[in-house]
Every structure is written in C-alpha cells, then in structure tokens.
Amino acid sequence: QVRLVESGGGLVQPGGSLRLSCVASGIIFRLSGLGWYRQVPGKQRELVATISSTGITNYADSVKGRFTISRDNAKSTVYLQMNSLKSEDTAAYYCVSGGNWGQGTRVTVSS
Q: How many whole angstroms separate alpha carbon 88 and alpha carbon 79?
C-alpha cells in the first residue's frame, strides 16, 4: 500500500520561507520519480516541481528561482523548499508519485 504523508505547511508572511516534507512508504523510493502539485479551490491542480529517480528536477515557471525540490533516499523523503513566498503561492500542496497522492498540506501566504 502506497502512502505519501506531507507536512510543513502553515501560515507565512510574504517574502518568507517554508519547507514541505513528504515521507513515502510502499514504493521503491530510490527508483521513483516524485512531484509536488498545488491546488487552489475552484482551480485546476498545478504542477509545481518534479524530481526523477536520478535527481533531475523540473519546475513550473511561476516558482523557478524560488522553490527547490530535493530528495533523501535514505529517509524516503522528498522536500520542497519554498523561498520568497508570494500570496499567489497560497494553496494546498500535494506530494505525488506513480499516480498516488498524499492528503495535502496547506500553505497560506498572508500578512
């Protein structure tokens, strides 16, 4: 059974930083590609960033230069470091792997 558990969301002021974590189980983590999506109510889910099993990363244009995705195979964890946060980054953030989704963690950027 695949399980993806996100954490690290919260309330942060514009310009601030947060680091999201996603712990995976039920997959061969070191062989798995992973990604972060986000969704605002009433809008489609948006791909934020992906990281391949070999560490190749891709980012949405809206977060390039501000967000960094990384992975720790020893901990079966994928991270999303979010810097210079903007109000438009407010969303529920989801960890994804192989068509499996976590429950999401909410990020609110507001003063």
A: 20
